[in-house]
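Sample entry (150 residues):
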Amino acid sequence: MKCFDFLAGTWDVTNRWRTDFLDPTSAWEEFPAVSRASRHFEGGASFDEIEFPTKGFTGLTLRLYDPERDEWSLYWSSTRTGTLFPPVVGRFVDGRGEFYGDDTHAGKEIRARFVWSDIAETSARWEQAFSLDGGRTWVTNWIMELSRRP
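Predicted structure, serialized as tokens:
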């Protein structure tokens, strides 16, 4: 699988994130969301907007495929900042997508990793992890379990 076609549609999302994204011992918090995703550029682009009703913000992701490099760039923004974060870049191999990029969080330089897995017609999983040591160790800090709406 090399594209995000599976994501088109409306999804109920169960989110879990750490109360401190950099602390692997911090507590998990669970909250709902609704995601609406669309396909563009004949499968070479994907866009979604996600609403977090109990958190009071929305986010969006733009995904663009580079056929020469055979990789995707994923860009995130939310109403909390109104800015576009640096992309994570990667590809799907055997139904699992891994995407990496450099960013900052809480004033610290981090390596970010997004993973798409367990992709089926009516469900999917996304997770985010941060590394403070260039990718040697990771703190998984946000997990989304997606269920397609009928």
